[in-house]
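Protocol step 4 of 6: structure prediction from sequence.
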Amino acid sequence: MSKLDRLFQTKAITRLVPEARPFRTDPAGAKEAVLLLHGFTGIPRELSIVGASLAEAGYAVLAPRYPGHGTDRADFMATGAEDWVRRAIDSYLDLRADYESVHVLGHSMGGLIATIVAVTFNAPRLVLLAPAFTFHNAAVALSPLVAVFTPVLKKKRPLPESETDPVRRQLFADYWADDLVAGVAQLRRILKEARKDLARLHSRVLLLAGGADETVPASVARYVEQRARGAASFESKVLAGAGHLFPFDERAAEASALVTGWMAKP
């Protein structure tokens, strides 16, 4: 089945969760902009706190939504790596139409896509929040093979009682109750390209990692630093006790302050 055929299979009943829409802020007098890229199965509003912090500091911000995200599983499974990266590239071009200097920030898979975009357009600054260059789960490497036989591994995880966010509760059954192996295989394709691009990266780089991240190990900072030797500069910080979702959980304000503080450096 071709990608176009899969696209035509999108159900008429597919609906976008209103809170998953893209957002853009253009403060008066802004001269620079930052593209904000969310993670795998995530939504733009996960970067709303850091986005608000950057906007308050005078930067225009744009957080696009990747196709298949914030809707439902069927819609998600009809999309892939090219769709997600293309949306990021188009969004960067939209900002470049209005601002001469456009930086890039990404969380998790968004960090991989942000790296690809930064290399493609030689972005001045790149902010990586728990970028998914390495994983605790070694099974990610096997996803392209497993996906051929089992696009979805049924786990039927119950909705965690600790999950109080109404939007994430609404999306849980479609995106996180089972393992979307075919989607992870697409993530793996992006990972391979982003790893290669590290050697061609010339941006100034800030990397924040969570010390208690169960998805991306804190050692990712060392991994990126060793491979991005052409970067104009590299700074990293491990947030002790922080998990993978620190850009939008109780550590979000702390992470946002670190980002805006670094962006203010000459």
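Step 5 (inspection) to follow. The domain at 3-136+187-263 is CATH 3.40.50.1820 (Rossmann fold).
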